[in-house]
Amino acid sequence: MKRKMITTITLASVLALASSFSSFAGQWKQDTTGWFYQNTNGSYLSGGWYWVDGKSYYFNEQGYCLVSTTTPDGYTVDENGAWTVDGTVQSRETEVSVSGTKVIIPNGYDWERQEDGNSIALNEKNGSEQAVLVTAIEEESISEVRSWLGEEALKMVSDEVIRELAQELDGNMWEVSSSTKSFATGAWYHYSYKATNEEGREIPVEFYTNFTGAQIRVVVMLEGAGREFANSDEFVQNCIR
What global pTM score does this model have? Predict the structure, then answer.
């Protein structure tokens, strides 16, 4: 992937740092050494701070959660491993609104609101290039297009939006396929693209679009949704409301 793509989606979303998600999320486990968090794909959180169910925990290199101590970077965690300041457990939202669209933040992911205010970026930590961008584009004519020209015209609008976005992200990106998918939030158009990173490896990029009211909702996924999902469809199905 060109540096422009990585800067736009991945690096922009790195931070220092739900009940509706729990049906497919990873889970806490315990053995004789201590507590650890296993992701849906079988991997483990390790090597730093991660947000789980709205609280921040420090996991060592072996994947165990530190408890009742001071972390290597100088912060305090309580008997449950949660980050505290002056004895108060620190927390953050597990759901974030993007122009009326609710995004459920997966466990173990960082997120950052972008400068435009109408989009957020999520990513896995520790150098992963997997990232998700969720945005909402206001377009007052959407209702008129639907009423007068129907769904076929909306598909044409969607196609053009994705072509322009793909060109903006990486001018050498190419489309592989497109389809229509049905989720809890309605029908979404899905586009599979490919790009090439600096090492010459092909990178999958997926786009989803959905029309609601006067908005085009767009989800962009770089290298899939990540460790808490079997596939990108699961993210759209379970984390977009």
Answer: 0.81
Angstrom CA distances, 46 to 51, 63, 66, 77, stand at: 12, 4, 11, 16
Is the backbone of residue 126 left (phi > 0), alpha (psi -120 to 50) or beta? left
**Facing residues of 215 across strands?**
138, 212
How far, in whole angstroms, is CA 233 from its chain's centroid?
Answer: 12
Give the integer Cα–Cα distance in Å for 27 and 38. Answer: 6
| Kind of pairing between the strands at 76-77 and 69-70 | antiparallel
C-beta separation of 123 from 130 below 8 A:
yes
Determine contact, residues 1/197, Cβ cutoff 8 Å: yes
**For residue range 114-166, what is the model confidence (pLDDT) as tens digits?**
877 788 999 876 555 678 899 988 776 776 666 676 778 888 889 999 999 99
Where b means 16+ CB within 10 Å and e means fewer, 155-176 reads bebbeebbeebbeebbeebeee
- Backbone φ and ψ for 147, nearest 5 degrees, come out as -70, -45
